[in-house]
Amino acid sequence: MDLRFTAAELALRDEIRAFIRDRLPDDIRERMRLGYAPRKEDTVRWQRILNERGWAAFNWPRDYGGPGWTPVERMIFLEENQLAPAPEVSSFNITMIGPVLIQFGTEEQKRRFLPRAANIDDWWCQGFSEPGAGSDLAALKTAAKREGDHYVVNGQKIWTSTAHHADWCFCLVRTDPAAKKRQEGISFLLIDMKTPGITVRPIVSIDGSHHLNEVFFDDVRVPVAMRVGEENRGWDVAKYLLGHERTGIARLGKSKERVTFAREKAREVRANGRPLIEDPAFRLRVAQLEVDIKALEITQFRVVSDYAKKEAGKPDPLSSALKIKGTELLQATTELAMDVGGPLAMPDWAQELEALSNEPELGPAWASEATKSYLFLRAASIYGGTNEIQKNILTKAVLGL
Amino acid sequence: MNFDLSDEQRLLRDAVDRLLADHYGFAQRRSYLAEPEGWSKSLWSRYAEQGLLGLPFAEEYGGFGGGAIETMLVMEAFGRVLALEPYLATVVLSGTALSLAGSEAQKSAILPPVAEGRMTLAFAHGERQARYDLTDVLTTARPTAGGWVLDGAKSVVAHGGGADRLIVSARIAGERDDPDGIGLFLVDAEANGLARRSYPMRDGTQAAEIALHAVEVARDDLLGEPGAALPIIERVVEAGIAASSAEAIGAMEAMHAMTLEYLKTRQQFGKPIGQNQALQHRAAEMLIALEEGRSMAMLAAMMVEEPDPAERARNIAMAKIGVGQASRFVAQNAIQLHGGIGMTEEYAVGHYFRRVMVIEHMFGDPTYHLSRLAEQVQ
């Protein structure tokens, strides 16, 4: 047993760290440091810089334009990128549709979509959830009827993150409503968001942002060539997508970065007549978070080093534990940052700023953004399979109950 | 980064598991508790035969040169069966003190008989007023012509009553809480002026109060440099934390397995209670706590030999907190999910509960270590 990284891994970490330090544009770094969610342009700009270096598609094999890294190397990359802090690469492009096309796509699909996904020339979104199909994804109803060499798609998707930015959507649709098992009548389609009949309607979330959408499909014609995998076998594709490489799911670098940021700001604000950083209750909270981060970090090391051994195998069921604990920490650390802001974290400055742009600065942006991420990240324990669903998975896959 | 065991380590783990499977059923354990020592002397000899009692000692003293990972494997196995023998006290705590601070003569005199199972030891450091503070030593050591005279009292010394020799800390110089001025002494348990009062802990393991009235100790029985024992004591405690954390993981594994079995078999409302989602999720949370705890116990073992003292102390403290909190969660829920039967003395789960409870309160509990870590937050 050995906790240490190899010399090659350490060298790669230093290389990545130096690259991010030198190449991450200052304006993006500053926004990220203050806790802003990355803008579309920020994500695109940074992902293209990474792609130039061959790192954007960090989990793809070399043959498809990825760096061909081991699971440990991928983990190192993700952590360095989060610690910087830099915008994370598009998960829809890189960890979802990329690996799906590499595994199931036709040569034509791979040739057409993979390089553009890596370079984020296409912005992808995910059309899975529906009003009646959330955790119970197989209940989805959006219908695709075959008409010659097209499918005609009708129905509705919901919670579609960044659909309003998206050029393409990978979508689960029902192609056989009569299938004996619900899972057996589903297909996986790639849909051009410019196709006539698609309407995107914003859903404003409790943080005030427009990130989520409803997407309506009204007689949308999708070429059969845009189906991934066999007809009615889309569930296998979806399962692969959801189970593939979930080791990045804990987003520990992000939680670490938030604690570092909160400690930094706690030196600037006061509580009981002294810097907040000297407050015993605050310190205790930080210490506990650091212990929890350490416990998850070592657990993640165990899962990743195990994964490295059985690369082609099934995902480790413990990745559900990583998802649960990782999102709990993400929530707890953004909560900490908000609490450091205190009363100045509570005003919603956004509208004021728009209306009175020549007034002096209101509260500190970081405090307001901390609250925004706190609110936004309530979703972390809901998306990607709710934490309760993850416990169901553990119950079945590990406990055998 | 690598979490695999070597072939030798796997063999060791399997051999210990086999030995304990044959000799440590719950009923057998009850009979060992009833023996005069409160543990099994015959099993102690078996441990010696299998090389466990000299596992971490250097080869020239009859040992096998094992490291903290080997100790972790043995302690996990002990935890799974709630072994009662004084392994932690003798081999881990006292063995570490001797290995780190002992002279050639001291090591040659003591480690071989320990490895052969002919001598047990206890590490007598804690005092009544000290709680978890390692520097709070009031017991005194006065120099005399022939050596030292010890006066004072040691409290809740694990296996202190039955040990053949004690390693006693005493203040040679300085005031209470002074990090300098503490010495470690090898004291014969039968020495004049030494009185021991043995009692069982809440988990059935043995401990003792030890009173020292003008106990004479030879000059050669000072361990290490006079007055410079604190760094040694800290390393002994770190080794103790790593080993007892592994033991707690073994106990948590057993509690989790027992609880799962119960959830699958106990019927209420015409179905196994494990079909209730409230209980399933609790069991899943126990699993997560167990696995995160296991990660922390591995961290502690891998840090015992870390050369940077601050790094070592910080990581081992984090592990102690993590394992302690995880064991409390697993143990409390193990009883809760068993319902009434979990409350009974005759059922095993309550014994495991009490073992991890006692371990949690050794070497500083999670709140104690958390507060120390908190002081370093900046």
Please provide a written account of the structure.
The complex is a heterodimer of chains A (401) and B (378). With 401 residues, chain A is an alpha+beta fold. Chain A is built from 13 helices and ten strands. In chain A, helix 8 packs parallel to helix 10 (319-341). Chain A starts with 6 loop residues before the first helix and ends with a helix. The model of chain A has no long low-confidence stretch (mean pLDDT 93). In chain B, helix 4 (68-81) packs antiparallel against helix 8 (277-303), helix 7 (230-265) packs antiparallel against helix 8 (277-303) and helix 9 packs antiparallel against helix 10. Chain B has 378 residues and is α+β, with helices and mostly antiparallel strands. In chain B, the strands form three sheets. Chain B has a four-stranded mixed sheet. A four-stranded antiparallel sheet of chain B has the order 2-3-7-6, with no helix packed on it. Classes of the chains: A alpha+beta (401), B alpha+beta (378). The interface between A and B is large, with 43 and 41 residues.
What's the short story on this structure?
The complex is a heterodimer of chains A (401) and B (378). Chain A is α+β, with helices and mostly antiparallel strands and 401 residues long.
Q: Descriptors for this entry?
A:
heterodimer; A: 401 residues; alpha+beta; four-stranded mixed sheet; 13 helices; B: 378 residues; four-stranded antiparallel sheet; 11 helices
First-last Cα distance of chain A: 32 Å
Taking strands numbered 1, 2, ... along the chain, how are they ordered across the largest sheet of chain B? 1-4-5-8
Head-to-tail CA distance between termini of chain B: 29 Å
Q: Quick one: overall form of chain A?
A: globular
What helical percentage do the residues of chain B reach?
A: 40-55%
Q: What is the count of helical runs of chain B?
A: 11
Shape descriptor of chain B reads globular
Lateral strand order in the biggest sheet of chain A: 1-4-5-8
The number of strands of chain B is 10
Largest sheet of chain B, in brief, is: 4 strands, mixed
Summed over residues and divided by their number, the pLDDT of chain B gives a mean of 97
DSSP, total strands of chain A: 10
User: What value does the Rg of chain A take, in angstroms?
Assistant: 22 Å
How is the quaternary structure best described?
heterodimer
Structural class of chain A: alpha+beta
Q: Number of helix segments of chain A?
A: 13
Mean pLDDT of chain A: 93
Report strand % of chain B: 15-25%
List the chains of the largest interface with their residue counts: A-B, 43 and 41 residues
CA radius of gyration of chain B is 21 Å
Largest sheet of chain A, if any? 4 strands, mixed
